[in-house]
Amino acid sequence: DRIVSLDYCADQMLLGLVEKSRIAAVSQEVASDPLFSEPLARGLPRVRPDIERVLALRPTLVVRSYGGGPRMEPALRRAGIPVFTLPYADDLAAIRRSITASGKALDAPMNASRRIAELDRAIASAAALPRPPRALTALYVTPGDVTTGPDSLVGRLMATAGFVSYEPRTGWHRLPVEKLVGEQPSLVVRGFFDSPAHRQDNWSSSAHHVLVDALAETPKIDIAGSDIACGNWLAGRALDRLVTVRTRQVS
User: Fold this and answer.
1) Buried (b) or exposed (e) across 22-38, using 16+ Cβ within 10 A?
2) What is the full DSSP assignment across 174-214?
3) How is 17-43 classified by DSSP, letter by letter?
4) 49 Cβ partners below 8 Å, 6+ apart?
5) 83-91, long-range: CB within 8 Å, 24+ apart, which pairs?
C-alpha cells in the first residue's frame, strides 16, 4: 500500500487506523495537530494537496476530507487513483458510521472497531453519571468570538455529559456578552485555545475584561481542538474531560 492523506482530518483518520508502513505521505497540516497526528507521523513525508505532487507519490489510495477542494477527487479519479472522502460526522451515531466506513475503505476493520470501542467507553462513562439535582448549563467559547448551540458536535457532547447548552439557538452566534453579565453558566467549555492557528486577538470579546470579570468564578475546562475538529473517536476524549469536570466541579 501507498496511502496518502490530504488534510488535517484525513491525517487523523489514517494515522489512527493504519500502520505507518502502509502510509506514503500525510498532509502538511499534520504539524497543526501536535497532540495526536504529529507524533504518529514522525518520519513520514508531507505533501501539499496539489494534484501533481500527489500523483508523484504513486498512491494506491488517497484519503481526504476537504484537501484539494472540490476538484481534487475528480482529478484523481481521472488519473486512475482511488479516493476515499471521509463522511461528514457531527453526532455520535454519525461518528460511528464514519469510523466503520473508514475502516472498510482503509482495510483496517479491526482497528476501526477498537476506535469505536474507545468512543463507546466514554459514552458509557457519561451515561453512568447520576442525574444532576438542577439543570447545569455549559457555554462553549472559541477564540473566534463565537459560540454554538445544541445542534453542533460540541453541543451534543455537552448534552451527553449532562449539560444543557447555555446558547439555546441552533447554529453559530456571537458570544452573548450582555446576557453573561447577568446570568452565568454552570461551566465554560473552551475549545481550540490550545492552537496557535486559532488564537484570539485583542478585539475578541472572549478576552474582554467585562466578560472575563463576569465569568471569573465560573468553572472552566479546556478541550483540545484536535479532539473536536473532525468528528472521530477523539471526541470521546473531549467527552471524558466533560465527565470529569461534571463529576468533580459542578455535581
Assistant:
1) bbbbbbbbbebbeebbb
2) E--HHHHHH---SEEEEESTT-GGG---TT-GGG-HHHHHH
3) HS-GGGEEEEEGGGGG-TTTHHHHTTT
4) 6, 7, 27, 64, 67, 68, 69, 72
5) 86/9, 86/10, 86/13, 86/230, 88/231, 89/153, 89/231, 89/232, 90/152, 90/153, 90/156, 90/231, 91/153, 91/156
> Ramachandran region of residue 185, left (φ > 0), alpha (ψ -120 to 50) or beta?
beta
pLDDT in tens, the chain (251 residues): 999 999 999 999 999 999 999 999 999 999 999 999 999 999 999 999 999 999 999 999 999 999 999 999 999 999 999 999 999 999 999 999 999 999 999 999 999 999 999 999 999 999 999 988 889 999 999 887 789 999 999 999 999 999 999 999 999 998 888 888 889 999 999 998 886 655 545 445 556 666 777 778 888 999 999 999 999 999 999 999 999 998 876 54
pTM, 2 dp: 0.91
Per-position b or e across 104-127, b if 16+ CB within 10 A of its CB: ebbebeebbeebbeebeebbebbe
Strand partners, 85: 64
Place of cell 477564540: 143
d(CA 46, CA 29): 9
Contact at 8 Å (CB) between 23 and 63? Answer: no
SS (H, E, C) 121-157: HHHHHHHCCCCCCCCCEEEEECCCCEEECCCCHHHHH
